[in-house]
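Example record for the data management plan.
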Amino acid sequence: MKRNHLKLIAAALFIGTTFTIYSCSKDDDETPTITPVGIAVDTDNFKGEVPNGQTVTLDPTKVYKLTGSVIIKNGGKLIIPAGTRIVAISGASCYVTVEQGGQLFANGTSGSPVLFTSSTTTPGSWGGIVICGKAPINTGTTATSELGNATYGGTLATDNSGSLSYVRIENAGAVFTGTTEFNGLSLFGVGNATVVNNIALLNGSDDGIQIYGGTVNVSNIVSLGNEDDAFEWTDGWNGTATGIYTKRRTNGTGNTGIKGSNNATNPDATPRSNPTIKNVTFIGGTTGEANAIKLKLGTYAVLDNLVISNWTTGVNIESDASVANFNGHKKITGALFNTTTTKVSLKSTAGATIPIVDTTFVEKSDATGAGNGILTPTWATGGWSSL
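Corresponding structural encoding:
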């Protein structure tokens, strides 16, 4: 009996051990192994093309040294998981371009963002990210991007260039050629099936984000410490921006919170820039740029729930077409102007001051702006934006 009892105990132990080993093996199988291909093979020399038909997935446990340009070609895909760090070697030759038909999927989390930075903290020490889509623009059926020399524009409003979520872009804005500088993020003719949310653009030497036509929608944009405009659009952009927070550098450098235009040579070009901008907070300073928002060259827009603090002029609207769109039409609503000398200014194309009709803008003393009045919005905290 004792001998049989011991056999049963041994068998039970063996079965338990077998299942334990099997369970561990199963868990290991559920952790995906990333096999590097193409430009991902050499992490110390990250550059080159992602060609048609190839999907390159980066390993979030590694640091990728961007030593030149990364070009995602038509039909190529670059996947950058949460927590991945891409560090550019200083120079204008280091940038990322998504060409028409290519896709970039850079999806981080609040606590583990995808980080694009550089080997030095100097503004403009590398290029930035350029995405070219197939959505409509007003500078022709198609055009060539001033950054990266890639074709953009078309007729596909629902074009999909991928997804960027919880991405931090630091120290961008290098001079590309002549006087043309990269922005942190440049969106050329990007379609509205492309996801762009929770993006931090920090310490750049040009604009934080610039949108050149297209129909892309963006949300939760933090643009801080950039030496030019925090947020700019042109060339027929028709999309929405929900949640923008910007604060000028403490030394007074940096231009407007928003600069919007329609077309530099033809203010009435179609499709006309006419975005909807909601839930924004722009913090200025005692020196530097006078305008929190500057709209010109024929752009239209709808602005709602604005908090503008510490600027000379809250909203400056220039050009006949832009003034006609705003004056007396309540296109600016829910606005709080805190420590702002002139709330709204209207000027004709010739530069003459236009009297403001009292229904041009509607104030709201308890406007929340980006979510927390003049303070940092809750959505911008958590580490991904460095706030």
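Summary line stored alongside the record: The radius of gyration is 25 Å.
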